[in-house]
Amino acid sequence: MSQLTRVVLTLAVLSCAWLPVAGAQHSGEVNIYSYRQPFLVEPLFEAFTRDTGIKVNVVFAREGLVERLAQEGRNSPADLLLTTDIGVLLDAVKAGLAAPVGTPKLEAAVPAQYRDPEGLWYGLTVRARIIVTAKDRVTPGAITRYEDLASPELKGRICTRSGKHLYNVALIGSMIAHHGEAEAEQWLRGVKANLAQRPQGNDRAQVKAITEGVCDVAIINSYYMGAMLADPEQRAWAESVNIVFPNQDDRGTHVNISGVLLTQNPPNHDNAVRLLEFLTDDQAQEIYAESNNEYPVKPGVKASALLSSWGDFEADELPLAKIAELRGDAIRMVDRVGYDE
């Protein structure tokens, strides 16, 4: 990141820093640093405030919140860090910015593969890394596994975003975990050889590229399908593809989480733990999953009607902590194969 970018980012984050004065105690409040966009989490916090009377203050930023927590240290006003990916949670943990929680209610609500073994972070929702295929150009059932993406039959037919984007880094990490580094690299070289264009854009852009005939196959997060179907300008993109939940006959589909952690020195500790537990109860899980087009992390809570219409799927049970540990290996592999070049 350039120095100018760092300055602009710092100013952007500080401009929304309307949280209480550092170190102040506010028994009726809880303060959150959030990488999740406000419209996705506001319904949850409004419900929490209605139920408890506790006010929720939020600072949102796309980048830099882990760095900000580190800079603020013990004087940070933040009680919780809300993230969009396991990798960010692990960055905060490695920086010593998280405190263990481990209440029986949290451990009962969140399956072991979606939480830190020592209670330092918890998943809140689950998203699947799915494959989408052109309805008019790919025969249903022709692609069923991530491994199929390296098939020579798909040469010039695949679109993806950057291999270094955190969503793809996690997927590559899962391939390393399951196949070993050598085999995973061979797979990634095969996927690169099948790209229709240089990796670019976001997940929605990949579906648009299929609609426009640039490619026939793409890898995206499942919740983008819901977002596109709800957008009149993008609905046709989503309707042009079939959804594939990969590896249903073996290990299951790779998934990631949105998650949360308790900061190292939360000024409103009890309220923060109360909010953490609220976010994993049935009511909040239903609201969160519906608002985000994601799957509830808590077993037994129904997915939205839209997601249910796609059918059930088996998720890979590989612990996300293991996948996150392989991020560095995955990024180096992306560089070695020249995936983004």
What does this structure look like?
With 341 residues, this protein is an alpha/beta fold. The protein has 2 domains: 178 residues, Periplasmic binding protein-like II (D-Maltodextrin-Binding Protein, domain 2, 3-Layer(aba) Sandwich); 144 residues, Periplasmic binding protein-like II (D-Maltodextrin-Binding Protein, domain 2, 3-Layer(aba) Sandwich), CATH 3.40.190.10. 42% of the residues lie in helices and 16% in strands. It contains 15 helices and 10 strands. Helix 6 crosses helix 7. The two termini are 19 Å apart. The relative contact order is 0.18. The N terminus is likely disordered.
Instruction: Quote the distance from N terminus to C terminus.
Output: 19 Å
Number of helical elements: 15
Q: Please name the CATH topology of the largest domain.
A: D-Maltodextrin-Binding Protein, domain 2
Beta-sheet strand percentage? 15-25%
Largest sheet: 10 strands, mixed
Count of individual domains: 2
Unreliable parts: 1-26
Report Rg.
20 Å
The SSE order reads HEHEHEHEHEEHHHEHHEEHHEHHH
CATH homology-level superfamily of the largest domain: Periplasmic binding protein-like II
Overall shape? globular
Helix content: 40-55%
Task: Return the CATH class of the largest domain.
Answer: Alpha Beta
